[in-house]
Amino acid sequence: MTLTVLEQIVVFMLDIRLWTGRKRLQPEDLAANGIDPDKLPPGTLASLGSKKVIGPEALAPFFAIKREAEKILLATGVRFLGGYAVPAEQAPQLAARLDTLRGQFDQAKAQLLQHYDQAIQAWIADNPPTWAPVIRAAVEPMAQVDKSLSFAYTPVAVAPPGTLSDTAELESQAEGLYGQLCHEVRVAARALFEQSFVGRTSITRKALRPIRALRTKLESLAFLDPQIGAAVRVIDETLDRLPATGPLEGADLNMLAGLVGRQLARLGEPVVEEPAEVETLTEDAPPRPLPPVYPAPAQAALPLAWDF
Question: What is the pTM of this model?
């Protein structure tokens, strides 16, 4: 089973290096501006932090591209062995998208280097004149900035080495893929529930986008465990019951909140029976819709030390 799973994944190892444009703030930097370093707390208590030598907006494109690369891989994959395990059949199209991002990264890098001196001067002008010497003294040569910025990735097929008979550790890691997937879905679902459902009596259809994104992620990795297919069916059944247009409120909102807050936010966790609510219904009152329930996993997800 484990080896079959490994044959169905490709692990993308991202190697995106960013230049932060920061240098460590030194006591002499403060002394140059009339601040007595002797009055600072000891290093065991606090540190001085860092100083920026260039405006954040000049570096924003690189951070955005890195986030987009991680988002692309996590949309259909999970974190694994320091990289991102994705379905092998989707590897070519994911590589093509990463190639596009690499082109954007290189273009942004060329743009930064071309206007490097102007960006430094603009940052100096945006700050008090007394700090200009401190910033200038910390500016790195353009060649160093060039080396500090890079975008690369490596797709890897995972298999146990033929020279080793004991593959227990790799099998353990592979078995944890289902638990990692459940963890990532739970984190996203809990964040979505807090942002879009708590305290709301009506939501727009925009809230359906992240739910559909989670569905895509689950469907892509359905081969990890049979219970994933059950979760996908629950999502489909819930979305099919919603009206085609307009805001979501009332019973529709409650049903969707149940899907996100009770189903997806607990994916992979042991099912705990909740006490039934006592309520009084009139004879002609419509039944209150309940969120769908999918079967409990055959076995609990592997424990994650940093899980909720």
Answer: 0.77
